[in-house]
Amino acid sequence: MTPPRLDGKTVLLTGAAGGMGSVMTLALLEAGAAVVAVDRDEAALHALLGRARARGLEAKLLPHRADLGDRSACEAVVPGVLAEHGALHGLVNLAGIGPTVFSPDYAVKPVRFWECDIGAWQRLMDINVRAAWILAGAAVPAMLRQGWGRIVNVTTSFDTMLQPNNAAYGQSKAALEAATASWARELEGTGVTVNALAPGGPTDTPLIPANSPMPRHAMIRPEVMGAPAVWLLGEGSDGFTNRRVIARNWRGELPGAEAASAASAPAAWPGFGTQSVRPRPATT
Hints:
The protein is an alpha/beta fold. It is built from eight helices and eight strands, in the order βαβαβαβαβααβαβαβ. It has helices at residues 19-30, 42-54, 71-85, 118-146, 158-161, 169-186, 226-232, 256-262, and strands at 10-14, 34-39, 61-65, 90-93, 149-154, 192-198, 243-246, 264-266.
């Protein structure tokens, strides 16, 4: 199938120089988007620029070094993009850190939740959850003014969210999954969509340390993230919202809407049912 085009679109992508981030950045550039690539690793951003240059795509790559765990730096990102480019069409919240923030050996020597350093826990939550909240909150008013926008939150599988000894990472992604569903409902009918994108299992990126007992060859390749990210950020996904797309299930031979339908389900697992009893609003 002919891949969708994103010409004229400006996309802000966080964690852009990492394993999945670099894949999505290059895919978006190939599709014609201008990409504001945010990452805290200056050397990795430089390497990403080199990869883009090798493909003749560097003109639309806009590297931006920022530590999203720093609230002030995070709050400055979207206003800076709008001031420089005048519009923001897409936001991909990918930036995240894992349990290595508690211990580099967590994969072979688990850190129990009661053993976690609270400062490290707070930093993980600031980057994995608070940054996405700040960026989306700053981006949505501009998207609403233009009547069109896309937010893609990179989450994880349900079993990872519940996995023991995962030192807060799973819980941070559960928060982002819940945010996806509630933001999407608040934005229904506005032209701004919100979806979750997950690789569908352990992925061969630096987030999983080299000493992990899981064999690298059996992990999902980060390249699976490219095609669904491009489709979710394009005009062909109009009306597609409040869904979780599993990248490993994306079938590139299908038209985008069919591939998305086959690879997705409602965000935040509403099929588990309503558990609360909510009083109806009083009427006069």
